[in-house]
């Protein structure tokens, strides 16, 4: 039952890598990007590092699901909670970049 957690971890990690590798693109739809291109790069790199948090949460859930399978259903709620926390973290931190 660890496959959904591993799949979600791979998806979040892929998003973080894409955002870090293409820093000049405006990929986040919940952030009003600043006008200066240097600030866009800084904001995307800032967001990419924070998007690794849900990936790590899902890897931890996959490990815990292997060790204790009875915790799989309660741990399903950690994925949307971690994603929501990261979205709030990125959106609140975007003010530092002039967004």
Number of separate domains: 1
Fraction in beta strands? under 5%
- H/E series, N to C? HHHHH
Question: Taking all residues together, what is the mean pLDDT?
Answer: 88
Distance between the terminal alpha carbons, to the nearest Å? 41 Å
How many strands? 0
Estimated radius of gyration: 15 Å
Number of helices: 5
Residues in helices, as a percent range = 55-70%
Low-confidence stretches: none
Q: Could you give a short account of the major beta sheet?
A: none
Helical/strand content category:
mainly alpha
Provide a descriptive summary of the structure in words.
- It is built from 5 helices and no strands.
- It is an all-alpha fold.
- It has one domain (3-97).
- It is elongated.
- The protein starts with a helix and ends in a 6-residue tail after the last helix.
Sequence-ordered SSE layout with sheet pairings:
Blueprint: H1 3-21, H2 37-50, H3 52-67, H4 72-75, H5 78-93
Helix pairs in contact: 1-2, 1-3, 3-5
């Amino acid at each position: 039952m660890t496959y959904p957690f591993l799949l979600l971890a791979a998806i979040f990690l892929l998003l973080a890598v894409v955002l870090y590798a293409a820093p000049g693109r405006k990929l986040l739809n919940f952030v009003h990007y600043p006008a200066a291109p240097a600030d866009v790069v800084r904001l995307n790199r800032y967001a990419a590092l924070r998007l690794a948090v849900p990936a790590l949460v899902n890897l931890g859930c996959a490990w815990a699901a292997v060790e204790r399978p009875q915790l799989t259903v309660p741990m399903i709620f950690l994925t949307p909670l971690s994603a929501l926390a990261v979205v709030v973290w990125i959106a609140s931190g975007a003010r530092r970049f002039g967004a």
